[in-house]
Amino acid sequence: MERKIKRQYDSRRRQEQAAETRRTIIAAANELFIAQGYGQTTIKQVAERAGVAAETVYSAFRTKAGLLRHVWYVDFRGDDADVTLYDRAEMQSILAEPDLPNRIRRHAVFVTASNRRIYPLLDALAGAAASEPDAAAMLAEWADRRLDVATRYAHAAAGTGQLAVSEEECRDVMYATMDGTLWAQLVGQRGWSDERFSDWLAATWIGALVRRR
After folding, report:
1. Where are the chain's structural domains?
2. 1-63: CATH topology
3. How far apart are CA 33 and CA 134, in angstroms?
4. Using one digit for the tens of pLDDT, what is the confidence trace for 186-208?
5. Residue 10, exposed/middle/buried by CB under 10 A (0-12, 13-18, 19+)?
6. Sign, Cα dihedral of 22, 24, 28, 33
7. Rounded distance between C-alpha atoms, residue 50 and residue 200, angstroms
8. Cα 63 to Cα 55, 88, 180, 183, 206, distances in angstroms
9. Cα torsion at 81, 86, 90, 91 (round to 10°)?
10. Are 68 and 138 in contact (CB under 8 A)?
11. At what angle are helices 64-77 and 2-36 packed, to 10 degrees?
């Protein structure tokens, strides 16, 4: 009995250590991709920054493209839990708001926080996409995922009976304004605060999408 408990403990400890190593590698890769570019970053450099062997990185992620995918989704979701952002409790709480203007205001805050988290890596990938197929593929996947989220969000908004436009137009507006470009221009370049940006984004969405009462 005692040996069995010890084996369970050792197994759990090894799993925790492996998870911590993955998080360290992902954080190191994220820093390097942003600081020097995806194309210029090697697995060896990531390993050195993380304090592990290059073989450890390959064992965990197989390729640099595989590592990039994990870095992107940790940035996008905020942690390494394998749950899409749309399906997380915070987003589901927003979607449960029956009043569409209030839902949109909460969603604008959510999107603003996501933009702040992902934009440095997004900008690095955009700069690398012309010469790095992995970066271009990641951006294309991001666009597909964003369209899926916008489609689902618009369908939920239509279900409230409060849209002033078609579900398809709502989808397209959300798709075009959630990608971080506006945040980069207004917050990054023009010095707006995140709060000012989220207030403006909410007002823009409400004005364009919600039926006047």
Report:
1. 1-63, 83-213
2. Arc Repressor Mutant, subunit A (1.10.10)
3. 12
4. 999 999 999 999 999 999 999 99
5. exposed
6. positive
7. 40
8. 11, 28, 27, 31, 43
9. 180
10. yes
11. 90
Instruction: Spell 64-85 as b/e; 16+ CB within 10 A means b.
Output: beebbbbbbbbbbbeeeeeeee
Segment 122-147 shows an average pLDDT of: 94
* CATH number, span 83-213: 1.10.357
- State how far the Cα of 57 lies from the Cα of 24, in Å rounded to an integer: 10
Nearest to 196 by CA among 208, 180, 183, 209: 183
Residue that has been written with the tokens 């992620």 in this structure = 61
- Residue 5 in this model has a pLDDT that exceeds 80: no
CA distance 202 to 105: 5
